[in-house]
Amino acid sequence: MLNSPEMAGRCARACLPILLGLLSGSALARNVTDDDQRTLTLAATTPRIVSLAPGATAMLFAAGAGAQIVGTSGFSDEPAAAQRIERVGDSQNFDIERILFLHPDVVVVWSGGTAAAQIDKIERVGLPVYRHRIRQLAEIPDSLRRLGVLAGTEREAQAAAQQYAGRIAALEQRYAHAHAGGILIQIWDRPIYTVGRSELLSDVVRICGYRNLYDDLSDPGPAVSLESVLARNPDVILAVGADRVSAGEWLDRWRGYPTLEAVRSGRLVPWTDPRLSRLGPSMVEATEALCSALAQRSTSAIISGL
């Protein structure tokens, strides 16, 4: 009989998997907070991830979520395993059909870097968007922890966060009393482009004991005049170029202004380490290398960043 205890038990055993399947979407749904403090809801505990930023890709690997990345952007070459992941475009232009074909549960974008129009496209097709952003080196550990929550890899992310927090704290302590003067961070020539206080490079040189010559500007990448640089008279000029040749050429032009303190003391520093612009965990290693090179500068030598 249907009302017998035996039949009721059989029905319960047969129906339970069906009920769990029907309820899984809501039962497993969880809220995740991204680096911009926005909340998104995910149903998957170990989501399939598409990353549209090299820095976010590297951070996801560091957080233990590399195996969950099914698609990523161009220039995502860190770590080496990221080079084997399918490319779907970059922060400015991507293939939405290819992304949908990969069936991601979430798309990670670079907040402030991925074009707003591209983010709108993702959201219009119903995919959750996680915004990755690092404005200071000290934000890396918490960002790793949040990515661990996103990916369901909290244990690995916590271990990585503690490691990087220790290294960043050691850098802060080592150079806390350096007070090495003002530094011009040059990222382009003719016109001269530098970085303002909101740019991560400004925080990097601060950790190394220097003051960004243009930390009074809020624009992350302002153009400045030659007259302005001469008036502010930097103690060091750091030429952050794409390659050794271009950085060296920029510094050669500064030698035409011998009244500059940086020129008189020979503190003209070419730096071509691409990790400084990747916005990933390798920025910690890059900062360690830059701080060490700046600390070892002499009054008569040009320090090479290679």
Q: What number is the mean pLDDT?
A: 88
The topology string of helices and strands comes to HEEEHEHEHEHHEEHEEHEHHEH
- State the shape: elongated
| Helix fraction bin | 40-55%
Give the terminus-to-terminus CA distance: 82 Å
Share of β-strand residues:
5-15%
Which strand order spans the largest sheet, edge to edge or round the barrel? Answer: 4-3-5-6
Low-confidence stretches: 7-27, 298-306
Strand count: 12
Count the helices. How many? 11
Q: Write down the Rg.
A: 25 Å
Could you give a short account of the major beta sheet? 4 strands, parallel
Structural class: alpha/beta
Short structural description:
By secondary structure, this protein is of the alpha/beta class.
